[in-house]
């Protein structure tokens, strides 16, 4: 006879707290039934020689992207916590698992560049989790609409980073190109499953908070 363990609300809260600690400490956490980790897109790519200034710039950009993935983990977890339907919750958790690949790739690249993640990642995580809860409480249509808008804005800033990365930084480019394709797919998936278009000023406020995060995370 097999017994299935049912998790209590306290179990879930403790699990989410552990997820927050792991993510901000640089430990990638995936759901038990999630997809297997994907290979790093830069595995077979070699950089050209870069100057110290180029390395610092690449590290700053990859620190922004690492922070963005910390925020994505918190955001999706917060949204899934209060999602109305099991289907929406599963979709959000699956996207979080794919974003976990991005987090691992950005973390590895920062180490290669002899740099570190943002010192403020715990604050970014906490703020993003609260935003995710707020979005999720509005209902699944708005929940998915928030996913779509977030992914579209992330896609735009990844395109900007691909334009401003040093041409010699081929490994970072390989990582960001795959991340950008994933963000487009996540946005389209949300839109195909009932995402509602967010009214102003919400997208504008999201873009403003993103610019603030990027400015701070680039240096700290």
Verbal overview:
There is one protein chain. The chain has 220 residues and is mostly helical. It has a single domain (51-217), classed as Up-down Bundle (Ferritin), CATH 1.20.1260.10. The protein is 70% helix and 0% strand. The chain contains seven helices and no strands. Helix 2 packs parallel to helix 4 (121-137), helix 2 (52-81) packs antiparallel against helix 5 and helix 5 (140-164) runs antiparallel to helix 6 (170-192). The radius of gyration is 17 Å and the shape is globular. The protein starts with 8 loop residues before the first helix and ends with a helix.
In short:
The chain has 220 residues and is an all-alpha fold. It is 70% helix and 0% strand. The chain is globular, with a radius of gyration of 17 Å.
| Helical segment count | 7
Q: Can you say what the CATH homologous superfamily is?
A: Ferritin, core subunit, four-helix bundle
Q: What general outline do the C-alpha atoms trace?
A: globular
Strand content: under 5%
- Name of the CATH architecture: Up-down Bundle
Count of distinct strands: 0
Taking all Cα atoms into account, the compactness measure Rg is: 17 Å
The main sheet comes to: none
